[in-house]
Amino acid sequence: MAGSQNGRHTIILLQNTPSRATRTFMDYDSIGQAMDGICGLYERKLKEINPSLRNLSYDITDLYNFMDGFVDMSALVYEHSMNAYLPYDRQWIKQKAFTHLKRLANGGR
User: Which residues contact 12 (CB under 8 A, 6 or more apart)?
Assistant: First the structure.
């Protein structure tokens, strides 16, 4: 499964508030890098809220709550066989983040 995720350009679409002006995107070379990017976004938010903490820790529920805080969150993942981007919803992103973090916790990349 990890191999199939390599080289699949991934665009994460985010909207912070109901205002269309808060729409933004982040793009990555793979699904795994996109999941690292989302975790990094959350970790930067944690550091912003808790600037005196040197070590941050959180569980998957905290990350899910962060993701649910966006008005909209979705992904577009390039599918080479179709030469097109396929859309995925927030639940898919949560599942991929969980799988990615579990793999990292087990020492895999």
Answer: 25, 26, 27, 28, 34, 37, 38, 73, 74, 75, 93
Amino acid identity for residue 105 in this structure: A
Radius of gyration of the chain, Cα coordinates, nearest whole angstrom: 14
pLDDT in tens, 25-56: 999 999 999 999 999 999 999 999 998 888 88
Could you tell me the pTM of the whole model? 0.87
- For 79, how many CA atoms within 13 A lie in the half-sphere containing its CB? 9
Residues 6+ apart with CB under 8 A from 68: 90
* Distance from C-alpha of 32 to C-alpha of 102, rounded to nearest angstrom: 12
Quote the strand ranges of 1-109, DSSP E.
Answer: 10-15, 23-28, 72-79, 84-88
Q: Which amino acid, one-letter code, is at 107?
A: G
HSE-CB for 82 with a 13 A CA cutoff: 8
**Residue 14: C-alpha distances to residues 8, 23, 53 (Å):** 19, 6, 27
